[in-house]
Structure prediction request, 759 residues.
Amino acid sequence: MALSSCLGFPRIGPKRELKWALEKYWKKSIDDDELQRRYDDIRIRRWSAQSTLSQVPIFDCSLYDHVLDTVQLFSAIPQRFQTLPSNTREQYFAMARGTTIAKKEIPAMDMSKWFDTNYHYIVPEFESNQQFSLQPEHLLQELDLATSLGIPFRPVVLGPLSFLLLGKSQASQPFTYLDALLEAYGSLLQLLSSCNVEWLQLDEPMLAILPESESMHYAMHTYEVLNKQSTYTKILLATYFESLHDKKNLIYELPVEGIHVDCINGIHTASTLAHCAERKELVSLGVVDGRNIWRNDLEESLAILEPMQDILGHEKIMVNSSCSLLHCPIDIRLESSISKNILPQMSFAVQKIKEIVLLTTAITTGRESIIHELSHNEHIRKERLSIPGIHSPDVQSRLDAIKQKDFVRNNPFEKRSEIQKESVQLPLFPTTTIGSFPQTDDLRIARAQYKKQEITQGEYTETLRKNIAEVIKFQDEIDLDVLVHGEAERNDMVEYFGELLEGCITTEFGWVQSYGSRCVKPPIIYGDVYRKKEMTVPWISWAQSLTTRPVKGMLTGPVTILKWSFIRQDISKKTIAYQIALAIRDEVSDLEKSGISIIQIDEPALREGLPLIPEKQADYLNWAVNSFKLSSSHVKDSTQIHSHMCYSEFNDIIDSIIALDADVISIESTRSNMELLDTFIQKKYPYAIGPGVYDIHSPVIPSSDTIYSSLNYILTVINSSQVWVNPDCGLKTRKWEEITPSLANMVAAAKKLRQNIVQ
Ligand code: GLN
Ligand code: ZN
Prediction:
């Protein structure tokens, strides 16, 4: 009998139960016991949703993040948290979110993007003399819970190589810690062996990404050591996000009993893979896509599974998800408003489990045993190609008509910046913000009421216009130079456009965890994308009508809309990005026509979309940059194009940032000032730039002196005529009480600097 499993399941709960529990706990409206009760309940429900699998992953759930759980499991607690009671929630959440000890602010550990996904993990910190020891209480609690319920479980832990490589180390290279860490992993294997746990899944996504030449030595050493430590428990080594197809030796040589490969993101020809896996007891094939929401093409999956089964026999095969289902929404059955043409095409985590089980049956007892499902699947698959509206001849002809000149601005930066200086008079060091202002309870309530049709469109519009007027008045009063309307109308910078663009739908409960208790609802792009009518002009021109200062138009860029959506698979990412770019281009034109002369097109996901392996990067960067240019290059010389980027290390894509040809960019930089600016200097970055001078991710109010000294530092490396003054990112998640003094201090610092420079 072939086995069925998934690599991990979403954690937040179908109605975001984990989010609500955590936020109540943080606000102290529920206590430790109640949080535990709710967490147990969430885990039990997850397992029952997977009860048809022959192996259910456990310990893949987390109260905040699985990398932080690994930090706790191996006691890699950074020094500054060590005075807190060890192995407690207090210490755990302090690492995730920061805390105050004896009136002193203890900053949280850093967060970073989990490979090329929009999930953020907590970055481990390894100190120069780093020690590790196993702290298995939480793991044992979960083992007990699963055992008491009779779940056929398989614990999941991040593998040692990926754990080290994902961290920041004080040693010159992370593998310095490897032997110490392997002792702790060894203890884990001994413990699991003594508990008669048959399989342990060790996640090593890094092995799929690093070239074989770099990883082979350490991988062999690691798994030889671990193999010796285990007296009973077998290791299923899980790789994902890229294929192992060029790493044949690695698969063949590694002394692990089971190996998982991602069959969605890589081609594994059956004969080569089967040969490499000859010595393994179990080959897990990730044929059900963990990162998209389309129904599985059963024929396509069987075309991978059946030849493997012919060579290896079904007992050796495990049918699996390509990666953890963490990146998918939970259950399509909660959706009540998706069109009947599209709904049957979709599959969320719960439905994916069914697909895995079905495929397992097919290879165990032959495809005849699922003959009805196969023909039904085939029928639905054909229907996908004829969903009404999926192909728009107008969009196609616009794409066909794109010319090289559509990617290029009328004049080079030097020339147009002179024209812009004439048309919008701005002081030296212009001050501005990144777009959003606090999303107040009033706004959230009005939006919810509008969605439930409890208030009319007119009433909703009125609330938004009132909010925009307040935001404009505030900015006028504190004397910012370039104002924004505040994005009151947007629930989210991508979902908002997903609701308005044709070819996209949004969901009611399609939440995906972004970090901790934060979730997003990615739109689903199912057809050709285009804009039917203006999306932002009424709000922005209303804002402009209330002030004599310039109001910056605010749009989300094509790459970010693409990256933060679930996308169709019948056309290339590049084509989808160009379609979105044309829609944004239309919006840019309309903003320009309505008198807006500064337009910001945000691309925070530009870096995140960078493929994980170098061979694929140049092509991506080429179409990503072109998409931005397609959306922005047609404007008049006098129109100033801004872009904003965050969460990124930009060093490796600086040439592409230059190639955007944006007149002004703002970047998140308070945490990494030095490094980041160094790159911009080295490259002689020619455009204007606003390195964020205040960290909006923290509730701390920066003093005017702190901002002033950051600006002075910036001036040592960037020409004064190029410098803009702005926060790190949007202010949406902050409170008015925080942003009012912070922005006032920012403006004061810019004014002081102007005076001092002039003198
Ligand atoms: N304009 C957006 C905002 O201010 C940008 C957000 C982002 O970079 N993630 O909220
Ligand atoms: Zn940002």
